[in-house]
What we know:
- This is Glycine betaine/proline transport system permease protein.
- One of its GO terms (biological process) is choline transport.
- One of its GO terms (cellular component) is ATP-binding cassette (ABC) transporter complex.
- InterPro entries: MetI-like, MetI-like_sf.
- One of its GO terms (molecular function) is carnitine transmembrane transporter activity.
- The chain is 88% helix and 0% strand.
- It is built from 13 helices and no strands.
- The relative contact order is 0.13.
- It has 277 residues and is mainly alpha-helical.
- The protein has helices spanning 2-22, 24-46, 50-65, 67-82, 86-116, 118-133, 136-147, 151-175, 179-187, 192-203, 205-225, 233-243, 247-276.
- The protein has one domain: MetI-like (MetI-like fold, Orthogonal Bundle), CATH 1.10.3720.
Amino acid sequence: MESAYFSIGKYIATLVDWLNVNYPVPFELLSAAMEGCVKFLEMLLITPHASIIMIVFSLAAWKIAGGKVAGITFLGLLFCFAMNLWKATMLTTALVMVSTAAALLVAIPLGIWSATNKTVDNITRPIMDLMQTLPPWVYLIPAVILFSLGRAPAVIATAVFAIPPALRLTSLGIKGVPSDQLEVGKAFGASHSQVIWKIQIPAALPSIMAGVNQCIMMSLSMVVLAGLIGAGGLGGEVVRGLTRMMIGVGVRSGLAIVILAIIFDRVTQGMVTMSRR
């Protein structure tokens, strides 16, 4: 059993080394794309004065989830600004947004495909089971080996980690559409693609939005861990407080992470409610 364990590790290490030697360009391009997206979004969030971003985010929260969530958003962001964590908070927000977008670009189409294709469903289900049982630290190891340290491996590892819940809830929502709705669509001559886009996806939208909510929460938790590989942001502040035994830095960074998680959760729950309406 011991030799089998070491042989598996040896084969995986060999595969990673082979990819690094023979196909460095795709990884470099993907790394540059992720890094560029994060830098661009971070610039958009940091360049205006903090008060402007607070007002914009609060108005968006009010529009989506109501006045209570808008107040929580404004006070939470004000706390981050008062604790001198504004840049770290905006960087974490950028990392979460880019990671979530990358995860959803894979999860939602694949979830729709698996819901409408039994073979794809049989293939993706055990893979999703494996991905959801792996510890989050495991995702950081290949990301660092293939993409080095920094924001790009953090985004990629976070996106991969956040795919399973969005994929599962998308597939579940599509499968849960009542059969009579599908029969009515087919009776009126709707094609397979029209049934998917005009009947199944609108009916499954609350489940899909719940998947988006879980994807964002998973991305935020992983981005914090990614501070260990040089991603920066609030995760980097937590790591700095931990390694230097600076209790104040660790506590205030942890509180900022909790505030950011509450804001993301309440706003995306508001999006779920809007989709149901």
